[in-house]
Write a structure and sequence with these properties.
eight-stranded antiparallel beta sheet, 11 strands, Jelly Rolls, three-stranded antiparallel beta sheet, 10 helices, alpha+beta, single chain
């Protein structure tokens, strides 16, 4: 998949092979996203690879913030370096190093609000109509990106170089800012339409990354989106397009991702997906 999914013809054939229409009343349960228009979002995804403007309800947003305030994140993903965000400075001193990011684990289990988003009927319907089959929930990711000197960042590990993802033949991620994000607080950058249009050299390259200068030379300026928004602002994108995070300069950024794909590449992920749909709360570790 990692090799063959680079080619549009293969992606098209796989989607056609696994295509499964929505059953009658499959997504008729009440959604927490009452104001979003599913077909409008799917149309934008097909044309541009992205849709901006899915807002978290205030109650859901506040529940996630309460979770963040009362649960440990883990410095650079290290299980041995846990701390509350409010104690970040003291943690850096105790552990003898500062961190680039802080990751939360088991969030779909431990935070009911995140589980509600991942199993919401409108979210699932968007994913189904875009993936053209029953969506497979492949995990949630909740993490901070911390303000640090640029020289301290490994831009590749921090996803701060332009790249595209090859997690499946087609996959979709819902992003939600949980802090206000402006040009100085790590906005997400996306190149519209690059999920469908790439130079052959980009596809044949062993590397999924490309330099910003190279992409500026190929993609028109009106395709470039630098996405800012207030806390609670969300968007959904096909991550086969070129995208990247940017350095936080003035303020830490907190981001939630809800991920869907066409296939299950790990038994645990499928188990999680089925648990979400059944409403159970069995323990799992997220990727």
């Amino acid at each position: 998949m990692f090799i063959t999914s680079r080619f549009h013809i293969v992606r098209y054939l796989v989607v056609a092979l696994y295509k499964k229409p929505i059953r009658d009343k499959q997504y008729q349960n009440l959604s927490i996203f009452s104001d979003i228009q599913v077909d409008e979002i799917v149309t934008s995804l097909k044309q541009n690879g992205i849709y901006l403007g899915i807002h978290l309800p205030d109650s859901i947003f506040q529940e996630i913030i309460n979770f963040v305030q009362n649960n440990r994140c883990y410095g650079d993903g290290n299980y041995n370096c846990g701390f509350l965000y409010a104690d970040k400075a003291r943690a850096a001193k105790n552990y003898g190093k500062s961190f680039i990011r802080g990751d939360y684990y088991n969030t779909t289990l431990l935070c009911p609000a995140i589980k509600k988003i991942a199993s919401d009927p409108k979210i699932l319907e968007i994913a189904h109509k875009y993936l053209e089959k029953n969506p497979v929930f492949t995990g949630s990711q909740l993490h901070w990106v911390f303000v640090k000197n640029k020289s301290k960042y490994d831009l590749n590990k921090a996803a701060m170089n332009f790249h595209y993802d090859l997690n499946d033949y087609r996959n979709l991620i819902f992003f939600f800012y949980l802090t206000d994000v402006n040009l100085l607080s790590s906005p997400h950058v996306y190149i519209r339409g690059s999920h469908k249009r790439k130079r052959l050299s980009y596809i044949l390259s062993l590397f999924r990354r490309q330099s910003e200068a190279e992409l500026l030379n190929y993609y028109e300026s009106d395709r470039w989106l630098t996405i800012c928004g207030k806390a609670g602002f969300g968007f959904v994108e096909d991550v086969f397009a070129f995208h990247k995070a940017t350095l936080p300069i003035s303020q830490d950024r907190l981001l939630l991702q809800i991920k869907f794909g066409m296939h299950n590449y790990g038994e645990q992920d499928n188990y999680v997906h089925q648990s979400l749909l059944k409403g159970t709360s069995d323990f799992f570790l997220e990727p």
